[in-house]
Backbone:
């Protein structure tokens, strides 16, 4: 290195930032530097730079044993500075990661002292052009023949996390989290790759991707509280969609035999580590298939995505438990799981009062008095069974009251041809043999709506009366799938900008 060691100014890329640690004095110094640049005729906010390579591509250009490589042009945010007398090392962050650059007075002339050393700060964006070489420690580095300041950061970036008290700041100022937290960048890039791999898989099976309305006249396709908005032009209320289902089934009516959509849905309900008011769903519909066809599809799809994006079908949870997504997945009937967990072979012949008493014995909180019989049973499933389904499990033949849009099981009119895919203790994907009999569909929707018949989507029923082919339908919660595959602890960790209450003025 020739100049001896100098103090290293660096953003800690492995620790998390104190998002409040902003010094107004430092900001003032940076603004003064900007004013000096502009006074000298240089505006870094109007600078251009031809980026030919990103950081992750550079090592591949330097095979083992090669000490000097081709010329590259890189650009990114300065995240580490070791400024010395005649030479300095600068690390910059781009979309691929971090690349080291080496700037010297010999190569840059007076600009090294008068510009680089005096005007460039941590957090600025610079471009560097030069040949690759390998340092004595073996790190692939760009030897700068030219550099340029291409954007000035007027506020210093955070250096340390302040701890859990700043968790909301981390989500609110995700852009800072992405700069300093490699784990966040990795996870959110992986999300994008997962979605791309899903699209590729479905396209390979001749599915057509469509876009359906986010504003619905009737909130249908799921049992959830919607967000309500108003159209000034049409002078009527609309609902932000709570599901993609009913419009995608209209596509089946129209002859689009294989369709899917990846879209945002909105539910005006609780927020938790597993729930967000705004989240992403994949819904898939395939004519001439059924819920068993969807079993094969979702299993093959998830296994394919795992191999393509992560190179393995094994997922290790933070607690060390390994979830194996390869091989054949378990299948178990809902009723059998309930009987096994309660130890009561006659559970489904018991009265609601007897089931509530059993809930007490099982250690569950008392179900609400207005709950239906099937809701009491589903509380047992949701609290005592589902959280323990860590390995992939298709829970099949759910009570018909839980979904009015599926076909009733032949030979057992108390259940429907449905599965819920549970992995890592939560539902990842439900799928149905879709109800395509318009008369049966109307009956089920009327039972669900009760006295509130205005909640029935009459246009959807009209579409069914024109004929819909038999079909299998599948929904996958993209956020929950990414939580599973990346080992995230919170749904907010896999949503780039999660829903937060507006920040109150200080």
Residues:
């Amino acid at each position: 290195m020739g100049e001896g060691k100098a103090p290293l100014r660096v953003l800690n890329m492995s620790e998390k930032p104190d998002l409040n640690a902003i010094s107004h004095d430092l900001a003032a110094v940076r603004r003064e530097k900007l004013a000096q640049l502009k006074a000298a005729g240089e505006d870094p906010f109007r600078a251009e730079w031809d980026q030919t390579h990103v950081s992750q591509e550079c090592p591949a250009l330097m095979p083992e044993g090669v000490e000097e490589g081709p010329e590259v042009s890189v650009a990114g945010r300065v995240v580490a500075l070791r400024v010395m007398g005649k030479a300095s090392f600068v690390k910059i962050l781009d979309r691929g990661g971090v690349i080291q650059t080496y700037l010297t007075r010999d190569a840059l002339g007076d600009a090294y002292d008068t510009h680089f050393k005096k005007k460039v700060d941590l957090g600025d964006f610079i471009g560097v052009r030069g040949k690759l070489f390998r340092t004595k420690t073996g790190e692939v580095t760009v030897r700068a023949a030219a550099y340029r300041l291409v954007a000035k950061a007027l506020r210093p970036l955070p250096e340390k996390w302040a701890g859990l008290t700043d968790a909301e700041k981390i989500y609110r100022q995700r852009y800072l989290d992405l700069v300093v937290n490699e784990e966040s960048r990795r996870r959110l890039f992986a999300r994008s790759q997962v979605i791309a791999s899903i699209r590729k898989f479905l396209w390979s099976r001749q599915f057509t991707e469509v876009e359906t309305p986010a504003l619905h006249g009737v909130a249908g396709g799921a049992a959830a509280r919607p967000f309500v908005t108003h159209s000034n032009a049409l002078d009527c209320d609309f609902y932000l969609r709570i599901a993609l289902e009913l419009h995608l089934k209209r596509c089946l009516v129209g002859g689009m035999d294989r369709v899917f959509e990846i879209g945002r849905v909105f539910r005006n309900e609780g927020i938790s580590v597993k729930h967000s008011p705004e989240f992403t769903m994949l819904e898939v519909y395939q004519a001439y298939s059924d819920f068993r066809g969807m079993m094969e599809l979702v299993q093959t799809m998830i296994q394919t995505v795992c191999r393509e994006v992560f190179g393995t079908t094994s997922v290790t949870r933070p607690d060390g438990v390994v979830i194996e997504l390869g091989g054949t997945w378990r299948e178990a009937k809902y009723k059998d799981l309930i009987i096994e967990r309660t130890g009561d072979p006659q559970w489904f012949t018991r009265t609601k009062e007897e089931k509530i008493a059993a809930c007490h014995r099982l250690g569950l909180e008392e179900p609400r008095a207005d709950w239906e019989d099937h809701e009491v049973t589903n509380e047992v499933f949701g609290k005592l069974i589902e959280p323990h389904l860590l390995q992939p499990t298709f829970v099949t033949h759910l009570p018909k009251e839980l979904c009015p849009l599926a076909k009733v099981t032949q030979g057992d009119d108390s259940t429907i041809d449905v599965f819920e895919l549970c992995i890592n203790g939560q539902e990842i994907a439900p799928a149905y043999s879709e109800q395509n009999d318009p008369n049966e569909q109307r009956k089920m929707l009327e039972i669900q709506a009760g006295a509130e018949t205005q909640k029935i989507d009459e246009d959807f029923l009209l579409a069914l009366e024109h004929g819909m082919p038999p079909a299998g339908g599948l929904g996958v919660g993209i956020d929950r799938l990414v939580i599973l595959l990346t080992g995230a602890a919170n749904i907010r960790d896999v949503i780039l900008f999660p829903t937060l209450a507006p920040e109150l003025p200080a």
About this structure: The first strand starts at residue 8 and ends at 10. The radius of gyration is 29 Å.
